[in-house]
TrEMBL record:
The keyword Transmembrane helix applies. Residues 38-155 form the VTT domain. The chain crosses the membrane at residues 20-40, 52-78, 136-159, 171-191. Pfam families: VTT_dom. InterPro entries: DedA_domain, VTT_dom. The keyword Transit peptide does not apply. This is YqaA family protein. The lineage of its organism: Bacteria, Pseudomonadati, Pseudomonadota, Alphaproteobacteria, Rhodobacterales. PANTHER family: ALKALINE PHOSPHATASE LIKE PROTEIN (PTHR42709), DEDA FAMILY PROTEIN (PTHR42709:SF11). Keywords: Membrane, Transmembrane, Transmembrane helix.
Length: 192
């Protein structure tokens, strides 16, 4: 089953609307959606390494724009939208304490969440809620998401064929690691 899912994803990654699908996933992942854009980005680059930089650029732009939506949710609709999203991630009790410390380290929080598997949407909403300066938020989001997406694109572009072979030979292991990273990000949200 994992093999069929992998093959389907690789085929989808080479579809003519794949960039639009990536943009949509990257946009909504930055504010509400729990699945990272890497799920589409990686097979898209593996399927067509020549488009690595375009794929990374689309993910970056859509992610930062989605981050602005998350910021707006935090700034304008925290009680009705932001709080339920963060509460579903187990952060309802820690929000008040977190907000007092957040802006002291806001740059580093956005940078860390933008690069790591930590759910970026938590930071985008918290940035708006705590009133982080919008310019700082945008600049840090561009830096963090740019680093993340372009490093992944560069590695896949440079080592694409061997990485694809490695993934295909160890598909079960790669799937397990991806799931562990996803759940690890959610666990980090609950315990941080």
């Amino acid at each position: 089953m994992i093999r069929r899912l992998y093959d389907w994803t690789i085929e989808l990654a080479d579809h003519r609307h794949a960039l639009w699908a990536l943009a949509l996933v990257a946009f909504i992942e930055s504010s509400v959606f729990p699945i990272p854009p890497d799920i589409l980005m990686i097979p898209m680059i593996l399927a067509n390494p020549r488009r690595a930089w375009l794929v990374a650029t689309v993910a970056l732009v859509a992610s930062v724009l989605g981050g602005l939506l998350g910021y707006a949710i935090g700034a304008l609709a925290f009680e009705t939208l932001g709080q339920p999203i963060l509460a579903s991630l187990g952060k309802a009790d820690a929000m008040a304490e977190f907000s007092t410390r957040f802006n002291d380290v806001g740059f580093w929080a956005v940078l860390t969440a933008g690069i790591t598997p930590f759910p970026y949407k938590v930071i985008t909403i918290m940035s708006g809620w705590t009133g982080m300066p919008l310019g700082t938020f945008i600049a840090t989001s561009i830096l963090a998401r740019g680093l993340r997406f372009f490093i992944v694109a560069g590695l896949l572009w440079h080592f694409g064929a061997p990485i694809r072979d490695f993934i295909e030979r160890r598909l079960g292991l790669m799937f397990s690691l991806a799931v562990m990273l996803l759940f690890g990000g959610f666990a980090a949200v609950r315990f941080l």
